[in-house]
Amino acid sequence: MDIKTLHDADIIGISTAKNAFDTLATAFGQHVENWQHDVVDRLGHSEWTGTAAGHANTRITNLGTELQSAKQELGLVSRALQDAYDGFAAAQAHLISALDDAKAAGLTVGPDGGITWDNDPKSPTFAGHGAPEKAKQIQDRITAALNEADHADQTINARLGHLATNASNGTGLDSATAKADTDAAKALQQIPAAGTDPNSVKAWWNGLTDDQQQRMILNHPDQIGNLDGIPAAVRDKANQTNLKNLIQDRNNQLKNLGPAPKQYLDPAETNGGPVENPDYTEWKRKRDTLKEQLAGFQSIQDRLDGKFDDGAGGPHYDPPLLLLGIGDQGQGRAIVSWGDPDKARNVSSLVPGLNSNMAGVGGGDARTAKRIYDSAVSSAQINHDTPSVASVFWLGYDAPQLDGPSVLMKDRAVEGGAAYNQFLAGLRATHEGAPAHVTAQGHSYGSLVVGQATQHPGGLAADDIILVGSPGVGVDKASQLGVGADHVYVGTAKYDPVANAPSPAMLGGLGAAIYETFAHPDASWHGTDPASQTFGAQRFSVADGTVTDSHDNYFGKENKGGDSLPNIGKIVSGHGNTITREDPR
Questions:
Q1: How far apart, in whole angstroms, are the C-alpha atoms of residue 247 and residue 296?
Q2: Residues 530-569: pLDDT tens digits?
Q3: Which of 426, 447, 446 has the alpha carbon at shortest distance from 438?
Q4: How confident is the model at residue 466, as a pLDDT?
Q5: CA angle 309, 336, 398 (to 5 degrees)
Q6: Fold of the 311-578 domain
Q7: Cβ contacts of residue 184 below 8 Å, gap of 6+?
Q8: Quick one: which of 123, 315, 93 has its CA closest to 131?
Q9: Cα gap 417→438, rounded to integer Å
Q10: Which of 229, 222, 268 has the alpha carbon at shortest distance from 243?
Q11: For tag attachment on the chain, is the N or C end more exposed, with fewer CB atoms within 10 Å?
């Protein structure tokens, strides 16, 4: 597709063809109805019986089915032509808009897309000092419009070619074929359900025209933004729209709560004692929940807007900060990535643990992911590689909080593990070019989530696994995690109270503790201690820390976590063989 072809394309001709097929399909449908009424129904009410009648009835019934199938196929041609019109019209409009803006800016666009301008400040047609930047923007828009038209051309050509083949060889008269074609056309308009295989999601998305994709993003940002198998850049665009919607919704709900009911019931109603009004209790619960959600969403918006002065950069981040997931399910969902995981050669994805929440994602947690990014870039440079990194912070589950026994249970890790497995499968499906080197990381309870994610059929779409501050991952051996024991890396601070938590059996009394100590000396709360020799992983060096700070220092600055962060950077960048090692305990 070139500029002249798209600019001069007779889009109206496609609409005219579509209307002609509508007329044909309507007329054909009337013929089918007449056939049903004048032939099938009359024959059915006749008293004709016998062998010949049986054969005739069978053939007439089959012919009726073939006519209905042909009617469906004609309708599908009309639908394909409408999609072609929408796709080409959008691409043509985008091209014309870019060309108009180029002209207004004093830029001349050549037939091949090259852009020139008057660069003489003394000339009356001088394009201005910002002309190179404007030219680059215009050129990108022109290229995008041409690609949009190419995509529409390819997808519509495939659909019409399939229908033409059906018509020429007679397969379009088969009811099963017509149903399959109809279902496929409907599927293009229906968003796959959450949990659909990411490769199928990717195929569905690629089958849409650019205009259809834009309509999906505009009309269904909450679904598109959180669907594994959708490209990262698209998810970011949809989620940024959805985030603003979620913030506005919480503000509206808070406004509509109205004034607080009186806090206490009248003494006459309670025999004199102060009793909190149930209406106030419920009002306060709703208000507090909405405020907490709003604070979390706003924190992430502030991070995207560059309002955090913590060294991660300003509103125009380098690398870009992408929002790969946002939602209000459970305690909230949020996934951010420094760098585009669809383009990076090395992708890290960190699962947090105890006490993680949405507000933290916008604040320190996003900074943690940036530290991992920086460390991996540094490692690549030291090893004379061109850095190519994306660092994801994944809060796609309800992390345990310090308000109950959830951290002691596996259920949240099981549910989170399924979602994390799906997420990494989605990154694998949408990655461009050769598969990326993917490192799955779990901190604290998040390591148990990673462990559970590896136990799904097909394993986890990761090449290396990092476990830090882990209370166990639900398996007894590193070899059970599916990436090979030599690709499982463990960091455990000497005084980390979570990683050194005793197993449940050790809390069952003196006899149980003695038995557990001798029978299962490497037991942890959720299985074998990953830092033990029995587990069989590679252990890397970290600072000892203290009981109060060691659990949170694995991703901190070097003077806090020692070799921990540099070691993590080495693994993420594909240089795990250069880590500073520590003997298993």
A1: 9
A2: 999 999 999 999 999 888 888 989 998 656 788 999 999 9
A3: 426
A4: 98
A5: 110
A6: Rossmann fold (3.40.50)
A7: none
A8: 123
A9: 16
A10: 222
A11: C
pLDDT surpasses 60 at 509: no
DSSP of 351-418, one letter per residue?
Answer: EP-TT--HHHIIIIIHHHHHHHHHHHHHHHHHTTPPP-EEEEEEE-S----TTSGGGG-SHHHHHHHH
Residue 231 phi/psi, 5° resolution?
-55, 150
Question: In terms of DSSP bridges, do strands 464-468 and 346-351 run parallel, antiparallel, or are they unpaired?
Answer: unpaired
- Using DSSP bridges, classify how beta strands 437-443 and 464-468 pair: parallel, antiparallel or unpaired: parallel
Can you list the pairs that 179-188 forms with residues at least 24 positions away whose Cβ atoms lie under 8 Å?
Answer: 179/72, 181/72, 181/73, 181/76, 182/72, 182/76, 185/76, 185/79, 185/80, 185/159, 188/83, 188/212
Q: Report the SS3 class of residue 443.
A: strand
| Structure-block tokens of residue 514 | 């003695």
Instruction: Say what the pTM is.
Output: 0.71
The amino acid present at 82, given as its one-letter code, is Q
Domain boundaries, the chain: 3-190, 311-578
Q: Are 560 and 553 in contact (CB under 8 A)?
A: yes
375 pLDDT tier (thresholds 50, 70, 90): very high
SS (H, E, C) 262-277: CCECCHHHCCCCCCEC
Q: Give the pLDDT mean for 117-129.
A: 91
Which burial class, exposed, middle or buried, applies to 306 when counting CB atoms under 10 A from its CB (0-12, 13-18, 19+)?
middle
Nearest to 328 by CA among 256, 404, 406, 250: 250
Q: How far is CA 420 from CA 55, 180, 451, in A?
A: 59, 33, 10
The answer, yes or no, to whether the previous bond of 319 is cis (omega within 30 of 0) is: yes
- Where do the DSSP E strands lie in 487-537? 488-491, 523-524, 527-528
Look up residue 168 and give its two tokens.
């020429």
Among residues 117, 85, 87, 121, which one has the least CA distance to residue 101?
117
pLDDT tens figures, 451-460? 999 999 999 9
Is residue 101 within a helix (H) or strand (E), and if so which, with residue range? helix 51-104
